[in-house]
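Page 47, continued from p. 46.
Same chain as before, 233 aa.
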Amino acid sequence: MLTQTILNGREITYSIKRCKRKSIGLKIDHQGLCVSVPLQTVLPHVEIILKEKADWITKKLEQWENKKSLAISWTRDAIYPLLGEPWRIALNSSGEIEMARHFSNETANMTIAEQSMPQLDPHQIEKFVMAWYSQQAIICFKQRIVIYAQALNISVPPFRLSRAKTRWGSCNSRGLIHLNWRLIQMPLHLVDYVVVHELSHLIEMNHSARFWKLVGGVYLDYQAARKQLKDYA
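Result:
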């Protein structure tokens, strides 16, 4: 059973599952909010529980939405985030495919362009978009490393793009920085945090109080950035 409610000014659609249990349970995943309730529970009581848990529910739903925004489907009309902004495959004036900023008010011109778009299979799209992401990531990350290496008064280290599944960045004992290519999808302030974090490891190869003092001396609001990154994890 699907129903709706308003939590923190936001319209939330959720499913209700009645089962043999003594209390109300809340579950949030890629499908949204599911509320498991005892068999005889009335809807107004469910609403009361949801209002009490409104902050937790909306926060968790936003976390899942962030995860979905980074999930890539290799299709011609998909949106590909770059530094937090939406981009998509388009045709340039020469009839060649390129990446272009996507604006929500695009209508007729977009339809015409799509009709003229050459046929691309998912593998071709993945190859094209990943080459674009890699190019953008290398340019951006190099620039940010130079800026924050100067701020930390250290030499600019070499870096490599990473495809790690569980790490945004790393730094080894040889001074080589690895930055996850997916960072280029995120807002710039989160890229900056990871860069500062890894550069600080060139001075303190640990997570001691001295390490966090180094990070905080260059990136003041690092705790908020850490929290946001966990939402994307």
